[in-house]
Amino acid sequence: MAQVLTEERTNTFHSFFESWLVEQDHYLEELVSASKRRRVHHPSAADDDDDTVLRQKIARVIDHYEQYYRAKSTCAKTNALPMFNPPWRSSLEDAFLWIGGWRPTMAFHLLYSKSGLQLQDKLAELLQGLAAGDLADLSPAQVNQINDLQRATVREEKQISEKLAKQQEKVADTSMVELSNAVTEAMRNPAAAAVDDGGGRVAAALAPKEVGLAEVLQRADDLRLKTLKKVLGVLSPIQGVHFLIAAAELHLRLHEWGRKRDADTGHGQ
Predict the structure, then answer these.
(1) What pLDDT, in 10s, does the model give residues 113-133?
(2) Which of 6, 148, 184, 228 has the most CB atoms in a 10 Å sphere around its CB?
(3) Range 30-65 burial, b when 16+ CB lie within 10 A, else e
């Protein structure tokens, strides 16, 4: 019965995730439209009303990410294991996952990559002393803040990775080695008394390890969301819009490319 409920929750989250992706694509188009409208005017002419509108759009996107992590956390409390290798993700996405999601420090690589591309695109304008109105306009103060944030995130990421390693090592602790030996011996001697009564001993041995993995997953997700918010806190409203556009485009296209690749290669069939 518990297994059925767990599978139902996993399937429910899978459905939620597919709907969430559709919503993410909708928010992406809203952000792109907002950035294009801003470009119609000279960036330096933007007023407080423009920034207020952009902040509202950014807030809605952040809320959308928070919805995702709340739903994920709820599902993980019942069964965290599928979240480490989500069946709704493609094999391409799996290859780049860190503890069931994107690596927090990737946010900084994304930011600098997009900033560099926009800098190349707007170089002529910048040389004329004009504002680019996007991530090409990162100031020295912003770069310093981002570098400090990146260093702090690297430290936290390392701590969580070390905690995961300790949890993974527990699969070979005394209780697991003893139980695996006892069950194997019982399989060799069917006439002997059953070592595992309906999986009770196995479940009891695995339960604390799954709890530990769930805690690591929660810390990783908390760092992902915190990093996103802190990066946006450094950026101006229009820069934040461009950063969120780049993040959504990368996420949606990687998911799309991965699913197509799996379909073409027959992976998962």
Answers:
(1) 999 998 887 765 655 555 657
(2) 228
(3) ebeebbeebeeeebeebeeebeeebeebbeebbeeb
